[in-house]
Design a protein that fits this description.
This protein is α+β, with helices and mostly antiparallel strands. It has one domain: Aminopeptidase, CATH 3.40.630. It contains 5 helices and 7 strands, in the order E-H-H-H-E-E-E-H-E-H-E-E. Strands 1-2-3-4-5-7-6 form a 7-stranded mixed sheet, sandwiched between helices. A hairpin with a 2-residue loop joins strand 6 and strand 7. Helix 1 crosses helix 3. The longest helix is centred in the N-terminal third of the chain and has 17 residues. The chain is globular, with a radius of gyration of 15 Å.
Length: about 160
């Protein structure tokens, strides 16, 4: 049996973050391109600042733990809407070798519980409208489609869940 462990990204974790965002397969349905090193440094610095600002919200490294061995498999995020603090955005990314194993659903479940425990009333998730596996995870987790739209020039779908 395995379990997932979520821990906030820290300054020493850039290598794991970059493994995700520099992977073309991972980013195909997110930005439609891998993220180059310099841009990844800038994005990671923003993640670290947000992680320091909020205790229960931020971007988390996800480990698969089995037989006392922790393996980095991806990230999960629960980002507080600072303008409307009863809302947050849920997200996740997995390294391709961990796709299709139920980890995305488990990450979503953990983050939904974290949101409920922190008095979030509305969760959103933004995906590429062509990302059928991610859409299935969200719908099965209780999300509903809110709208199809363009986000930063890319096709997108916004899903939501009332808590």
């Amino acid at each position: 049996m395995y379990k997932l462990i979520l821990r906030k990204f820290m300054s020493t974790d850039f290598h794991d973050y970059f493994r995700l965002v520099s992977n073309e397969a991972v980013m195909a349905m997110i930005t439609e391109r891998s993220i180059p090193l310099e841009e990844a440094y800038v994005n990671f610095a923003k993640i670290l600042r947000r992680n320091e600002k909020f205790d229960q919200f931020g971007t988390f490294k996800v480990y698969h733990s089995s037989n006392n061995v922790n393996e980095f498999i991806g990230l999960g995020s629960l980002i507080l809407n600072e303008e409307k603090t009863s809302e947050a955005e849920l997200g996740y990314m997995l390294l391709p070798e961990h796709w299709g194993k139920g980890y995305g659903s488990e990450i979503a479940k953990i983050l939904i519980e974290k949101a409920k425990n922190n008095f979030i009333e509305r969760l959103t998730a933004i995906i590429d409208s062509k990302n059928i596996p991610s859409r299935k995870i969200l719908i099965n987790s209780g999300f509903q489609s809110e709208k199809l739209c363009e986000i930063d020039g890319l096709p997108g779908e916004i899903l939501y869940m009332g808590l």
